[in-house]
Amino acid sequence: MAQLRICRAHQLETAELRRRVESLAAKLVARYGGAYRWQGDLMRYQRSGDIDAEIHCAASELRLEVVLGPLASFLRGTIERELHSALDRHLQVSAKD
Fold first, then answer.
1. Which of 35, 61, 64, 90 has its CA 20 to 30 A from that of 7?
2. What's the rounded Cα separation, in Å, for the pair 16 and 4?
């Protein structure tokens, strides 16, 4: 099994960070299936047998930890690129933020 760890600094308020992580999780479920749930400031996403992920939402940092199952491990590079791209889009601070 492969593991991925991605950390990103951010300047978002806690509520806004959670809203953006929630949006990202909902898109993952809509596109790939699986389910997510919150446990305090930790969001867990799981797709049976394939992917287990945790997003830790801290005051100035977001940490994503992913464990890929045997089949998903073959796509590690693609998955990692997609995760970086999704975090770039969802954590981006626009002029209206």
1. 35
2. 25
